[in-house]
Amino acid sequence: MKLVVDVKQVGSVVSGRVLKMDESLRGLELLEAGGEIIEELCSIDSPELGEDCLCVRGENGALDSEPFAYTYDSVEDAQQVVEDINMLVAKVNQGCDNTMDSFEKELAVLINKHSIENRCDVPDFLLAEMIVNFIQTIGEPIKKTLDWHGCNSVCHPSPRKVELSGWKANKTLKYLQYHNGLI
């Protein structure tokens, strides 16, 4: 999941907090649009719910954990706002690779099973989240480093150049052209 938002409604008041947000979303002016009352989901400065917009974590990282709240004209409007927020968050998360989410859950269970959390006094789910965040953060730079060095790995092979000359090159070219429907 790229974005997890906890939303509550009590009467005409809607409140909540951003529980998790992928860093790739931070600072984007428009994440999604299209609700009936909440027309836009954005990430500009800090979490804030307005009459027709929800801003999630933004440029001011110090306020990431701050709750948001807004009082609407009616209970019905507040109910619609909750539906809009859930729909917009679902649109942001649409097509996400849930592999890491399920891995994180399984890792938390494994950490708990072996009581690893007791070694560092960190709850199992937070420890699992930290490990998954580390993997996601370090993965791309490692791949770029391998590419820069021209190294191969099992999971990330670098492209191979094949040099052909003479009749072999001509024969290979004709073969590829024929099988790709070019001749």
Could you give a short description of this structure?
With 183 residues, this protein is of the alpha+beta class. Helices cover 43% and strands 17% of the residues.
Written overview of the protein:
- There is one protein chain.
- The chain is an alpha+beta fold and 183 residues long.
- It has 2 domains: 3-93, no CATH class; 99-148, no CATH class.
- 43% of the residues lie in helices and 17% in strands.
- It contains 5 helices and 7 strands, in the order E-E-E-E-E-E-E-H-H-H-H-H.
- The chain has helices at residues 75-93, 99-113, 117-120, 124-149, 166-179, and strands at residues 3-10, 13-21, 32-33, 40-42, 48-49, 53-55, 68-71.
- The strands form 2 sheets. The chain has a 4-stranded mixed sheet, covered by helices on one side.
- Helix 2 (99-113) crosses helix 4.
- It starts with a strand and ends with a helix.
- 17% of the residues are buried.
- The model has no long low-confidence stretch (mean pLDDT 84).
